[in-house]
Predict the structure of DNA repair protein RecN.
Amino acid sequence: MLIDLKIKNYALIEQLEMNPSPVLNIITGETGAGKSIMLGAIGLLLGNRADSKLLFNQEQKCVIEGVFDISQYNLKEVFVAEDLDFDVHCILRREISPSGKSRAFVNDTPVTLDVLRKIGENLMDIHSQHDTLQLGDTSFQLNILDIYAGNTSLDIYAGNLSYLKDYNETYRKFKKLEGDYKKLTDQLAQAQKELDYNTFLLNELEEIGLQADEQEQLETELKELENAEDIKLKLTQAVQSLTESEFNITSALKDTVQLIGQLASFSPKYEELRTRTESCMIELNDVAGELEDAERRTEADPARTTEVQERLNTIYTLQRKHQVQTIDELLAIQRELEGKVGSVLNLDNALSSTEKAMKEAEQKMLEKAAVLSERRKASFGKFEQELYVLLAELGMPNARIVIQHKAAAPTATGTDEISILFSANKGAQPQSLVKAASGGEFSRLMLSIKYMLADKTALPTIVFDEIDTGISGEVAVKVGKMMQQMAQKHQIIAISHLPQIAAQGNSHYFVYKHDTEDRTISRIKKLSEKERVDEIAHMIAGANPSASAYKSAKELLSL
């Protein structure tokens, strides 16, 4: 529950602090005094978007801080999940600078607005007139029924998941697999369109049987074949120069080796020269031998020339076709085509596997949906009866509540479409709330529903913003008593304009405007017993209450 609230430099509030009672707190004040401004500040504390234009003093930062006692609530896991320090006194703080920059803190640890919202939604529930309008929305109605049926409670199903969350997990898994299946289907359809052409290109490359470095070798071989006669002639002349001419080099080197060898005994240097010359002679003999071999092998071969030319022409044609210049690039294209052709089979296998997993997930989802749906339908009668009794107590004895249900395609919330139908008058056919309920009836409906749900939620603090709109008299007294009963298990903060409800509060706060020399500011004070009598008398009779108004005020407080 909220034990301390500080608001500084926000809208008409220069500085404000209140320490609410742990039970029922009433906030009253003239229209425009600043009651809704307080709610706006609390909304910032719970993660709503900030606007620097709302700063009281545009040169100073706005600070809103709430201290909550959460010792009686099992919220430690919420803090652990967000990696935050847990303490029985939880401090939420929001700061907005004049530049518009916003900062949020939980127990003095900086957090994002998302984290602040996650923590805040476990600490407070603010009911405003907007929520009353939401009551006409069927998804909002479904959420109400899920809370009532216990479908959102933890630790009752599938380990630590609620029925709704358990279903939602299977739904999200199914939708992901469904998306994967559609994506694979599209990919396979596209791949199959290209399959024939890619297969033709791949077969063309595979049939030629390309080898790395083949092109260079063939081009060299072709040059030799096309110039075979000239090569053979020059090789013959070279051999003759080395070995057969009158002054051939090998014979001269042989004589040189013998002559230098005769000098070897005179000095080591001559032996070294002889060895070097002998090495030259051996090398030239080897060269001569290789030249002779090359000369013998070199023959004009028109058939082979034609074969190499055709092979190279095929390679050149493929290179032009695929717009590349080397065999390595052709081989890379071949591997890519192999991947594309093979991927069709792989995609087919992946599609089959995903389809199987999708159908299994769908079956599991539908099973969970069926359980969720049965729990919802089982709660309809009890919900209708309990709401009927409460509405009768609030002055609508002829009210009828009917929950209309029909099966629907799976969504994130299940396979149910529901609509709460209502009629306030005897003999009138129940219709949708938007058509059938007036403003006052909406307020009583919403309060009754909040009353029914109070025991089924773990929220420490509930805030009502003028939920008493459109009611008066004895009904207002009963509304006040309902709030008192709710306050036995939840801290209630209620902004009200009705004296019957104001009199029910354990603590009564009064919001008022105070004019300074240069501007108007909003202030709040906790009323004493005498001040409460005065305020309630003013609420009954206006600015100048009569003695009977004071008497009525005292009677209301005595109730």
Confidence is low (pLDDT under 50) at residues 155-160. The two ends are 26 Å apart (CA to CA).
